[in-house]
Amino acid sequence: MRFLPEPPHRHGAVVHGAAAKTGVLLVNLGTPDAPNPKAVRRFLAEFLSDPRVIEIPRPIWWVILNGIILNVRPKDAAARYASVWMAEGSPLMVWSRRQTAAVDAALTARGHAVEVVLGMRYGNPSLASAMQTLRERGCDRILVLPLYPQYSASTTATVSDAINALLARTRNTPELRFVKHFHDDPGYIASLAARVNDFWEHNGRGQKLVLSFHGLPRRSLDLGDPYFCECQKTGRLLIAALGLTPDQVEITFQSRFGAAEWLQPYTEPTLKELAKNGVTSVDVFCPGFVGDCIETLEEMAQEARDAFLAAGGTQYRYIPAINDSAPWIDALTSLVERHLQGWPTKAARSPDMAAAEARELQVQREHALELGATD
Ligand SMILES: C=CC1=C(C)c2cc3[nH]c(cc4nc(cc5[nH]c(cc1n2)c(C)c5CCC(=O)O)C(CCC(=O)O)=C4C)c(C)c3C=C
Ligand SMILES: [Fe+2]
Ligand SMILES: [Fe+2]
Q1: Which of 75, 111, 158, 202 is the most buried (most CB within 10 A)?
Q2: Do domains 21-182+328-368 and 186-318 have the same CATH topology?
């Protein structure tokens, strides 16, 4: 077993971690580095090789992935990514970065001295680089918060898998906490409701509100994954917060991938059905995505719109995700704060103490160099 290099530290009289800090690692799925087939292929190869995502026996899946999917999908997906790419990059990256910076600032404003970084499960910035950043900043306690409100093995559990795999190669491991989900968090629900109400205030209300969640293979539900039920609960709570009745809303599942049955009802067929049944205007919102990304901006705001209008609908409006809206940043900051309870996070250090810590860090670096550290 080869261990990852340890950052500079000191033995003996100085207690390890005397100046240990608390880190917060926000994690999202990840996205290609560029909207071109090569970058998309690299991203999809990593993502779709994860056995938590595709639960098909490896030899069979390897042939399908490398023989078909990675030859066909990147070109088409690159064009779809290009259609939503922002000046600063992929929407998922842009919103994740803004959320990270905003939570960092909000925690500081609330008096916490913690390090907040962003890591992506696939692609960049990798979880390895994010964990390394936290180590270099002296974090010996780390709170990991996957930015998925609803737990699923294919999204949330694979984050803890990856972090634990990194720690399995680390000698001096940090103290760790994982947030499992926040599908029923009152602050999250309130920020969803605020987004929808705000949209309606400015644009009026459509006949139906469609709440579309990312899908999963139906089999995951049968095997005990709570994702489906958590989506339903988020939907129920949001409907209540909006003061609506269930008949004014459809809860659906999008982004079906592959030939197997996925969670139902499917979003696009439901939209077509609504149009055929005389519903002419719909408002579409995706509560499971805390930031807009290709799945919302391309699939929901473009593809699904075309399908609804082609089926006879006349007005289709996509309501943007909660992104960096003030209520959501506030809710996310409170969520972090709550999960940090019991860990020292306050910046209650005098300038003298800060100077002493800086000197100590310098001594530790020199000491490590004497010992021949190379990192
Ligand atoms: C919100 C939760 C998500 C679940 C659950 C989820 C499951 C899941 N996804 C795929 C396949 C793909 N997903 C893709 C993009 C994508 N998926 C999520 C979130 C969930 N996925 C996000 C936030 C994104 C956007 C990434 C971005 O760059 O913006 C893609 C890539 C896009 C495409 O080619 O269509 C695939 C493929 C599976 C198989 C799965 C569960 C088994
Ligand atoms: Fe040491
Ligand atoms: Fe997905």
Answers
A1: 158
A2: yes
pLDDT in tens, 366-375: 887 787 765 5
Please indicate whether residue 69, judged by its CB atom, sits closer than 6 Å to ligand 1.
no
Residues of the chain with pLDDT under 70: 1, 7-19, 347-354, 373-375
Domain ranges in the chain?
A: 21-182+328-368, 186-318
Q: Which amino acid is at 369?
A: L
Which CATH number is associated with domain 21-182+328-368? 3.40.50.1400
Whether ipTM exceeds 0.90: yes
The span from the CA of 282 to the CA of 360, in Å, is 61
Average pLDDT, the chain: 94
Q: Going by CA atoms, what residue is nearest to atom 7 of ligand 1?
A: 216
Q: What fold does the segment set 186-318 form as a domain? A: Rossmann fold (3.40.50)
What sign has the CA pseudo-torsion 296, 144, 108, 340?
Answer: positive
Instruction: Please give the C-alpha separations between residue 35 and each of 44, 80, 119, 291, in angstroms, as whole numbers.
Output: 12, 8, 20, 18
**Residue to mutate (ligand 1; options 33, 64, 69, 214; most atoms within 8 A of CB):** 214
